[in-house]
Amino acid sequence: MFKVLRLLPFIFYLVACQETNEPISPDFGYEYAPLKVGNYAVYQIDSIHYDDFANTVDTFSYQLKEVIDSAYILLDGQEGFRLERYRRNSGNFNWRIIDVWFVYKTAQQYIRVEENQPIVKLVFPVELESQWDINSKNTQKTNIAEITSITTSANIGSLSFTNMATVTITDEQNLIERKLNTEQYSKEVGLVSQYVKDLRTQVTGQIVRGVDYRKELIEYGVE
User: Fold this and answer.
1) Model pTM?
2) How many beta carbons lie within 10 A of that of residue 15, not counting itself?
């Protein structure tokens, strides 16, 4: 009996070693951009447009719906998806289609083709401080984005999300300008918010022209 007891710690050690030596699958974060036919997302859009030439301040509020309608095969063999986009003024109105975009993923990138311009929205693996040029697949000027935070939980309006990654596309400010463009992605959901400020101000801080834009997810699921 004494010999058996002496062997027990050694047995536990072997079991522990076997458990820790098991291979662990890396998490590349592909779930931050889930692509599946039937997935849809509804966003509340609120924006303010300042025009010093016309001396006007216009506000716009409406809902935007994005639906992954169908899949297809790209020339390089990758699977792509047709993304239909709809708009309505509020929940009391019917949806009307406004345009069609395309989305796809590679092992390293998530790309949205917006108005015929491919934009790299995310890179994999999704890691803090990862940087990339969102315009590397088009002819626009270089624009370096960065993953500036990854949190385990967050709230957008009345919805709660887990594993939230924030992408900062632009963050510049001086005495007369404020430029900010951020997007947030959640695992198993995708894009949950976007905030854009492109404002010209006086040195007093008064806004004279530009756009203040907010896009927040209010509903999502599978049709």
Assistant:
1) 0.86
2) 10
H helices then E strands: how many in the chain?
1, 12
- Cβ–Cβ < 8 Å for 208, 200: yes
3-state secondary structure 108-165: CEEEEEECCEEEEEEECCCCCCCEEECCCCCCCCCCEEEEEEEEEEEEECCEEEEEEE
CB-CB contact of 185 with 151 (8 Å): no
Q: What is the CA radius of gyration of the chain?
A: 23
What is the end-to-end Cα distance of the chain in Å, rounded? 64
CA dist list (Å): 102 to 32, 115, 216: 17, 9, 21
Can you say whether the dihedral through the CA atoms of 125, 139, 104, 63 is positive or negative? positive
Tokens found for residue 150: 């990854």
Domains delineated in the chain: 36-222 (2.40.360)
* Interval 75-109: pLDDT, tens: 788 899 999 999 999 888 999 999 999 999 999 99
Give the pLDDT confidence of 168-178 residue by residue, as tens digits: 999 999 999 99
Q: Cα separation of 143 and 120, whole Å? A: 10
Give the dihedral of Cα atoms 151, 135, 46, 102; nearest 10 deg. -90
Q: Are 128 and 147 in contact (CB under 8 A)?
A: yes
Token pair belonging to 18:
């076997």
Query: Where does the chain have alpha helices with state H?
Result: 2-20
What type of residue is 198?
D
Secondary structure (3-state) at 35: coil
